């Protein structure tokens, strides 16, 4: 048997993708209730948390930036001030919204504001995620003391806690997961903290980029603790992923599944680890959600019977056709739907063939440099 056919019958949950419980296409819907100042780049929402349901409402937290002008850009971070952002996630706070149907949202206000200088996070707070543990709620997020684009991205993870999802939140002014020792893969950054309860413990999956730009690699690992504020111990097999840019995971059967996209050789894959540690590719998909924050009903239930996900919120960066210059000026939230659930059978979500108008492909134009190389024009 060839290697390809062997993989088909041994690596995947079913030889036909239509029957693979960890294969899905993704569909997207614009959200109602959020304003973006007509796309002028001064207002941005991005990096949504996983979604929880409490008191008959869905709750979500996210990075929100409201600044006097759009970001000056990563390479121009030296031009940033205390009111002018360097990047889309600079000068941000953690906000939250609630919804009854997952499409119509009401912004509730700021959940966690930047503390006063010089406390951790005085410059920016971003990329939060939520944990519920023994009746209390915890958030984990990145705390910046410098603009992103300088050494700001070399920021630690801190936490906040409260008795209610509506706050007010108390910030724990200490590093929850410290950066690694020199010469280790996560020595510079601990990003995208993503908590789950698994095997009765708190697992926080996180991303790190190792090496120097532009020749760097992005991976993800996990830190484990007996309680929400630690101490957290990093797993000796870290990094667990060789690809991916954000962390988006959910309990599935006895293990953990992950959406892996954007960076690395294994981008645009859905992966699975029966032990939550050793991940293999379970499916290959397309148009996967950026920075996915899924509704994960059993995210905090470590009973070893994960049911999967059917929807969530992700972000897009800019909009095609808007006259705001480069598309990285701001981000906006959108809903995604899928069938990565043991409790749903939706054949429409199991279609792998995607058809687009030719204009979608022609948006991927050759650069001026590439065109000159082909035509020989100077």
Summarize the structure.
The chain is built from three helices and 21 strands.
Q: Uncertain runs with pLDDT below 50, 5 residues or more?
A: 320-327
Count the DSSP helices. Answer: 3
Oligomer: single chain
**Mass-distribution shape:** globular
Let me know the largest β-sheet: 8 strands, antiparallel
Ends: how far apart? 53 Å
Task: Note the beta-strand portion.
Answer: 35-45%
Would you kindly provide a written description of the structure presented here, covering whatever features stand out?
With 378 residues, the protein is mainly beta. The protein has helices at residues 3-10, 358-362, 368-375; strands at 27-30, 43-46, 52-54, 57-66, 92-99, 105-112, 124-133, 136-144, 157-162, 170-177, 191-198, 201-212, 215-225, 233-234, 249-253, 255-260, 269-273, 280-284, 293-294, 306-317, 331-341. β13 and β14 form a beta hairpin. It is globular, with a radius of gyration of 21 Å. It starts with a helix and ends with a helix.
């Amino acid at each position: 048997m060839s290697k390809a056919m062997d993989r088909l019958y041994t690596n995947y949950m079913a030889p036909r993708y239509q029957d693979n419980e960890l294969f899905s296409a993704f569909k997207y819907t614009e959200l109602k209730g959020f304003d973006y100042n007509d796309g002028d780049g001064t207002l941005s929402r991005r990096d949504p948390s996983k979604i929880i349901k409490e008191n008959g409402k869905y709750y979500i937290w996210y990075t929100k930036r409201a600044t006097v002008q759009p970001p000056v850009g990563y390479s121009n971070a030296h031009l940033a001030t205390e009111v002018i952002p360097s990047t889309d996630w600079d000068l941000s706070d953690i906000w939250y919204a609630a919804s009854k149907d997952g499409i119509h949202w009401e912004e509730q206000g700021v959940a966690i504001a930047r503390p006063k200088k010089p406390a951790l996070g005085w410059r920016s707070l971003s990329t939060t995620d939520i944990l519920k543990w023994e009746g209390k709620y915890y958030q984990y997020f990145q705390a910046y003391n410098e603009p992103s684009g300088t050494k700001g991205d070399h920021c630690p993870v801190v936490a906040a806690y409260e008795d209610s999802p509506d706050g007010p939140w108390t910030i724990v002014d200490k590093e929850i997961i410290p950066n690694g020792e020199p010469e280790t893969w996560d020595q510079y950054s601990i990003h995208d903290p993503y908590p789950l309860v698994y095997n009765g413990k708190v697992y926080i999956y996180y991303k790190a980029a190792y090496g120097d730009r532009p020749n760097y690699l992005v991976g993800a690992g996990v830190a484990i603790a007996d309680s929400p504020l630690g101490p957290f111990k990093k797993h000796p097999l870290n990094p667990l992923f060789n690809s991916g840019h954000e962390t988006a995971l959910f309990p599935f059967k006895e293990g953990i599944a992950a959406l892996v996209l954007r960076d690395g050789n294994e981008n645009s894959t859905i992966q699975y680890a029966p032990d939550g540690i050793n991940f293999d590719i379970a499916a290959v998909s397309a148009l996967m959600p950026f920075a996915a924050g899924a509704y994960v009903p059993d995210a905090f239930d470590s009973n070893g019977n994960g049911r999967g996900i059917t929807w969530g919120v992700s972000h897009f960066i800019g909009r095609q056709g808007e006259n705001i210059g480069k598309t990285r000026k701001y981000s906006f939230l959108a809903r995604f739907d899928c069938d990565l659930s043991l409790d749903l059978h939706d054949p429409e979500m199991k279609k792998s063939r995607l058809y687009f108008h030719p204009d979608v492909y022609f948006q991927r134009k050759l650069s001026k440099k590439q065109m000159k190389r082909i035509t020989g024009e100077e």
